[in-house]
Amino acid sequence: MDHDGVDDLARTMTSSRLTTTVLPRGRAVMLAAAAIGAMTRLGSSFAEAGAGKRKKKRRKTKAAPPPCPTCPTLPAPPTCDQVCGATRCLCYLRPGSSILCADSAHRTQCTMPCATDNDCLGTEFPYCLSQAEIPRSSGVRFALCDTPGAFCGSLDEVCR
Q1: Contact status, residue 137 vs residue 89, Cβ threshold 8 Å
Q2: 84 in the same domain as 41
Q3: What share of the chain is helix, strand, coil (3-state, %, to 5)?
Q4: Residue at 57 is within a domain
Q5: Which residue range(s) make up the domain with 41?
Q6: Is residue 121 domain-resident?
């Protein structure tokens, strides 16, 4: 605490010159200015005293969840025999989608490449087809077009 500053303020406020020559309104302004000055002086000494004692707040980090001890595995995609084995239909493989079982009659537009069935919407070829497989053939597949890849196509009779 700055005792000299407070003593100077007290002497200034009680001097005879201030009390006799300054109007009452001026006295109030002078008193307010002196009080603000004293608080500023005293506040700075308090701020200097407590500046090193403040603690910094640290963000708490969340611990990572423990790894799954027995994580489930995805089942294998169904095979042609599982999907179409009971029928006499061909299995049509579609990229990123399920297998379709249909009669052997199909039309594939080999000039319309696709990645999903969404690429074929609004056309007369609503399915994105990549290959066909004969059930019970031990996985023998054949291409639907001369160019490798998937293309929009249609199936005449879908087997259920």
Answers
A1: no
A2: no
A3: 35, 20, 45
A4: no
A5: 3-47
A6: yes
How many Cβ atoms are within 10 Å of 125's Cβ, its own excluded? 19
Check if the beta carbon of residue 114 is closer than 8 Å to that of residue 151. yes
User: Is position 41 within any domain?
Assistant: yes
Query: Nearest-CA neighbor of 80 among 88, 70, 72?
Result: 88
Confidence of residue 28 (pLDDT cuts 50, 70, 90): low
> What local confidence, expressed as pLDDT, does residue 113 receive?
92
DSSP lists the bridge partners of residue 133 as 91, 141
Residues 86 and 146 in one domain: yes
CA–CA distances in Å: residue 160 to residues 3, 103, 111: 99, 11, 29
Q: What is the DSSP letter of 98?
A: -
Count of domains in the chain? Answer: 2
Residue 74 lies in a domain: no
Q: What is the pLDDT of residues 29-65, one digit of tens each?
A: 666 666 676 666 655 555 555 556 677 777 777 787 7
Q: Are 39 and 6 in contact (CB under 8 A)?
A: no
Per-residue pLDDT band for 114 (boundaries 50, 70, 90) equals very high
- Is the pTM above the cut of 0.70? no
Same domain, 84 and 148: yes
